[in-house]
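Before a colleague's protein record goes any further, I have to sign it off. Would you go through it and say whether the fold makes sense for this chain? Take the sequence as given and treat only the tokens as open to question. The record follows directly below this note.
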Amino acid sequence: MLYFLLMPLADDYIAFNLFRYLTFRTGGAIMTALLISFLIAPAMIRWLKAKQREGQPIRADGPETHFAKAGTPTMGGLMILISVSVSTLLWADLSNPLIWYALLVMVGYGLIGFADDYLKLTKRNTKGLSGKLKLLLQFIIAGVAAIGIMESLPGHLNQHIAIPVLKDIYLYVGLFFIPWAILVMVGSSNAVNLTDGLDGLAIVPIAIAAACFGLISYLVGNEIFANYLKIPFVLGTGELAILCGALIGGAMGFLWYNAPPAMIFMGDTGSLAMGGVLGAIAVITKHELVLAVIGGLFVLETVSVIVQVVSFKLTGKRVFAMAPLHHHFEKKGWSEPTIVIRFWIIAVILALIGLATLKLR
């Protein structure tokens, strides 16, 4: 919005020339989302507490330390969704369809998460929406976005998968690109959802991944840098750096209130939305496989659940004391801050490895 309103003034007033630069608008998006989070958080927390007398339901079979968190309100993802959406709409070039497809996934998944959280609160259990219905809705939204993204990408890339490390090599998959893109978005969304189990655990890796994909979006959208690094050039993806900036600002604003001991939980409202939009950005920038590295912590958490379920069904034995992985370490006696900080360190290391693939070509 600001881009359309103020950028035309650049011809007459040199100060407005700043709005031509993605870096300036990305910085503006970060600060705007952070400021909005700080402004709305106190009132939102009070409102959610008033509506949720008993707070988020706690798993009966979960770690004993979690029962002390009873009464903490959930649906804090609303704070992130509002701050990120408003900031993106203010600073991004809204004529770019790629921005709208990413926002569609984020807001759509946020609404699914909101419905899930609402049912958990009203029914006073940890089930919420049925797994099948939740997945169906996720697939529908991702399918619409995938078709739109495929039509918006250049013809030599819109049905291809880029292979990290290997330059100028793209795997042609034809219309299979659509189910592939859906898988990335749905998988990323649910992986983040599984990771969101401790105070501050998921939100920092989300911010780290957003920062990485903000840089990737900028590089992929810049023909000079893309050619130098031998990565796909996709016109218009630079605008996604603004959305990633808004994600960073919104995440940091939320962390202020989610840091241990949390005053509010993200809930599925936030985790499904944040994971989904990261997946959408990865698909648009042709870095889906790199997302599995940068978001490797989310992958580890998901794999731990899969291994646990498969092992128990086949052998009747559990590999971990409890899944996802962070609960295993809780059961082993690690304190919550120790787990969270060590997982953050892992997230940073994996992000650096993922970014290294940009040059290893």
In short: The chain has a mean pLDDT of 90.
